[in-house]
Design goal:
There is one protein chain. 45% of the residues lie in helices and 14% in strands. The radius of gyration is 22 Å and the shape is elongated. Helix 8 packs across helix 11 and helix 9 crosses helix 14. Strand 1, helix 2 and strand 2 form a beta-alpha-beta unit. It folds into two domains: 155 residues, Glycogen Phosphorylase B (Rossmann fold), CATH 3.40.50; 177 residues, Rossmann fold, CATH 3.40.50.2000. The relative contact order is 0.11. By secondary structure, it is α/β, with parallel strands linked by helices. The longest helix has 18 residues. The protein has 16 helices and twelve strands. The strands form three sheets. It has a six-stranded parallel sheet with strand order 9-8-7-10-11-12, with helices on both faces. The protein has a four-stranded parallel sheet with strand order 3-4-5-6. The chain has a two-stranded parallel ribbon with strand order 1-2.
Length: 352
């Protein structure tokens, strides 16, 4: 989603934007829908074999900046740069954990003008692992559209068939590291205080939607075993996540070691009280605009959720702080402006 969102935004800022994507992929379809011309290839290997074709494509369109989002694409980009003058930008979305300092990686990264890290945590990891001088790294937080949803929460809940009661929610890909399992354990403890509470887990349940299907089956088994079918609701893949966030009383982000947490800023933009993990980049992104908990301690996680539900003044304060922080730090317009400066001059010392 990120290259589609930023590509569309850069078109709006007057840039000519092109995409290189796998044939038939959702990325290719999304780029076309955003008005971006796309060259499709069947695989990375095919792209390497068609290097002369890609070079001709670059030259005909006078492409001067290539922005990669997966390390597996850097070999192709480095080869293209060897034959065509361009600036090579790489956004490392996860944070490299194992050193990449062998001769091949030194050659590849030697062609990279700037590595963008999406949080201070990933910046720290990348500086340790990648064979580049410190000045070729920069932290650039992600950004999102700050449009809220004005639809009444009660109407959205009725549409979803949810009964009355406090609604705790989470948006995220179903995988162990995202923390749905830990949230379910905390929710059981929370039901002792709030027996009418509901839990809404938003995310695709199929492998084609990014889910770990055996893990989804495990979660469903846990729900059945603890007779939670009337309390826990798995929505499946949804495009209207802003509406679903609007319906929630508390948004929980229990990821084990999040590299950034785009869902965090989407929940902040929605003006929701947030309880997040006290690990990874979530504390950095949330700042003082949410509560933190050790997600591996169900009692601690449940306690922080209950603090919000028990204290309307605290909930209102967190909502205000979240929206303000989203506007000040994570708006898409500000992100695009900073990204544009990277494209124009990767050595620009602008403090992001």
């Amino acid at each position: 989603m990120y290259p589609i969102r930023t590509g569309k935004g850069m078109l709006g800022r007057g840039w000519r934007v092109f995409g290189l994507a796998l044939r038939g992929s959702q990325v290719a379809a999304g780029m076309r829908e955003a008005g971006i011309e796309v060259l499709e290839v069947g695989s990375r290997a095919e792209a390497l074999l068609r290097l002369p074709v890609l070079l001709r494509w670059l030259r005909q369109r006078e492409i001067g900046v290539v922005h990669c989002h997966k390390s597996g694409d850097l070999l192709l980009a480095a080869l293209l740069k060897s034959w065509h003058p361009l600036r090579l930008i790489f956004t490392e979305h996860m944070g490299v954990r194992r050193p990449k300092r062998d001769w091949l990686h030194r050659w590849i990264y030697g062609k990279v003008d700037l590595v963008l890290s999406i949080s201070d945590e990933t910046l720290r990891r990348n500086r340790i692992a990648l064979p580049l001088p410190a000045e070729r790294f920069r932290r650039l937080w992600l950004g999102t559209e700050l449009q809220g949803c004005s639809e009444p929460a009660a109407a959205i809940r009725r549409e979803l068939g949810l009964p009355d009661g406090p609604l705790i929610g989470m948006v995220g890909r179903f995988s162990r590291a995202k923390g749905q399992g830990e949230l379910l354990k905390a929710f059981i403890l929370l039901l002792a205080r709030y027996p009418t509470a509901q839990l809404l887990l938003v995310g695709g349940k199929l492998a084609t939607e990014g889910a770990n299907e055996p893990f989804v089956a495990e979660l469903q088994g846990f729900i059945d075993e603890h007779q939670l079918a009337e309390r826990v609701h798995l929505t499946g893949f949804r495009r209207d996540t802003r509406r679903l966030l609007q319906a929630m009383d508390v948004v929980v982000i229990p990821s084990h070691n999040e590299a950034f947490g785009l869902t965090v800023i989407e929940a902040m933009a929605a003006g929701k009280p947030i309880v997040g993990a006290d690990s990874g980049a979530i504390p950095e992104v949330l700042g003082e605009a949410g509560l933190l908990a050790n997600v591996f301690d169900p009692a601690a996680l449940a306690q922080q959720i209950m603090r919000v539900l028990d204290d309307p003044e605290l909930a209102a304060s967190l909502q205000t702080q979240a929206r303000l922080r989203a506007e000040q730090e994570f708006g898409l317009a500000a992100h695009l402006m900073r990204l544009e400066r990277c494209y124009l001059d990767p050595c620009d010392p602008y403090p992001f």
